[in-house]
Amino acid sequence: MDQTNEGSLAQVRHVVLVLSGKGGVGKSTITTELALALRHAGKKVGILDVDLCGPSIPRMLSVGRPEVHQCDSGWVPVYTDAQKSLALMSIGFLMEDPDEAVVWRGPKKTALIGQFVSDVAWGELDVLLVDTPPGTSDEHLAVLENLKKHKVDGAVLVTTPQAVSTGDVRREITFCKKTGVRILGIVENMSGFVCPHCSECSNIFSKGGGEELAKLTGSVFLGSVPLDPLLSASIEEGKDFAQSFPDSSTFSAISTISQTLLNSLQTD
């Protein structure tokens, strides 16, 4: 292992990519909530946000636009808590203007991602979640090429229940198979709407598409997460949903997904 990786990823036990075949399925929300659930389970977690066109996780974790510092091993991640149990590095931290569109050609994007993946001094982590852009583009290949110098345990695929979304995730599954990335499981997001008044769940976008896709492709179905106004508000305000609503069925669903994922990683 080269010195760069030794400084940045040597003490990271597990690396998990979070992928989606299309935008708008809540991939960054799932990444954030999985990280928080793992932290509540006593794990040290990192999030690497390489979504060039929409780096939204800093807002979701309410860290703003901190100044990124460097040490001998590379960039120092931003910690979201005093215990340093949740670390974040986002491409959004490196943008001079948060409202500026990233209008770059492929080589410039892949060069930045390559540096970004290799040069963060994570220290000791149980799990590093990598929030990728939607689709199967140059950016994904750049992430994989640089992370594979270390180790990638696999990918979690996020979909919504409708056929138009699960169809795109099929292509993501093909991408994983072609690039040798293990599929750790599929999460169905926006699976029903939880009424804030009576807690009844209505299936606005249909239901079961993610589970059906998992069966058809021989993948693990990790679980489903409903549309929950309380979760949406927590994400908007940068609050810890698990801490605010520990008894909610939505948190129970997220917690079960994170535990299933953790068990899968630990039994490798």
UniProtKB/TrEMBL annotation:
In which domain of life is the source organism classified?
Eukaryota
Q: Does the keyword ATP-binding apply?
A: yes
Q: Which residues bind ATP?
A: G21, K22, G23, G24, V25, G26, K27, S28
Cellular compartment(s)? Cytoplasm, Cytoskeleton, Cilium axoneme; Cytoplasm, Cytoskeleton, Microtubule organizing center, Centrosome, Centriole
Per its UniProt record, what SUPFAM superfamilies does this chain match?
A: P-loop containing nucleoside triphosphate hydrolases
How it assembles, according to the record, is:
Heterotetramer of 2 NUBP1 and 2 NUBP2 chains. Interacts with KIFC1. Interacts with NUBP1.
Report the protein name in the record. Answer: NUBP iron-sulfur cluster assembly factor 2, cytosolic
- What does the record give as the organism's lineage? Eukaryota, Metazoa, Chordata, Craniata, Vertebrata
The gene coding this protein: NUBP2
